Amino acid sequence: MVKIFDHGTWPLGEADEGVHPAGGERLWSESFYLDFTAEDGSVAGYVRLGLYPNWDRAWYWACLVGRDRPLVLLADDRAPLPGPGLAVRGRDYRATQEVTAPMRSFRLTLEAGAAAVLEDPWRACADPGGDPGGGATTSLEFDLEWETVGGVYPYGFIPRYEIPCRVGGVIRVGGEEIPFFGYGERDHSWGERDWWKVSWLWSSGRLDDGTFFHGMRANVGFEMPWPCFTVSPDGLLDHREGFTAATEFGEDGFPALSRLAVPGSPMTAVPVAFAPVAMTSPDGAVARFPRALCRFEAEDGRRGYGWTEWHQPPGWREHGWR
Fold first, then answer.
1. CA 289 → CA 60, 112, 128, 312, distances in Å?
2. DSSP 68
3. Into how many domains does the chain fold?
4. Residue 128 gets which letter from DSSP?
5. Residue ranges of the DUF7064 domain (predicted)?
6. How far is CA 162 from the centre of its chain?
7. What is the DSSP letter of 19?
8. What's the count of helices (H) and strands (E) in the chain, helices before strands?
9. Each residue's pLDDT tens digit, 27-39
10. Which residues make beta-bridge pairs with 217?
């Protein structure tokens, strides 16, 4: 039986793997993230399904990146809400998300006929809702399963949980088939989330000794014990408080490096391949969402790969980035 770490402020259980009743806020949403990374960082990707029942839409993002690969990106912010279950059908794609064993395994499939191919990934932020690929497309297919490693970590102050995982299956892009085995994380959250107000950093990865880590810091105007956990090589999940991060941004506003103060394991996160998106609010505000496959370098010499995101709503430079 998978252990659910006793840290949350609500009674998290297996039923929480399903869809929750919507609150009354227009921007109430439910989010399912699944990311994956080969152990050597050669190929990686992520999928996010966001449900917005009071806005009458879903967001579906899927991408593939890697060493010497262009970004392949499907970003649909006007997808129809799924019917029963989490199956999504959009123009030129269909996808399924299935909890095969609550808190233990999760399977994802995607068949997309025309994902954008971006030699310059920043084009994905230039025209939200447009055609960032400029007509260059390819097919993209995922058939992947996430298996829990070390247990389930609920946040202590919002309805959200994170699960470190082994990931395996098959990826197809264009005429290439990639048998995949690697690692990643999946998370699930629900509640009101205004993407156009608060900036944040989120990071998760696995080091070469088998240690998983996760940390998150939002820029809310005051400090607090930001959530963090590690999973040791022998599978022990350990909650730690006091995560923080300091980021160096380029002139274009995109991150060049972050120093992650993971308690007991300080490290740097260096972007290797970006998979950004942009999103437009109901009132027309635009937020950028740089997300990247990163190489992690711990001060004690350990190395690894995973994903980091630096969310940038309007006015983000004044939000207290460190």
1. 14, 22, 11, 6
2. T
3. 1
4. T
5. 195-314
6. 10
7. P
8. 1, 22
9. 999 999 999 999 9
10. 201
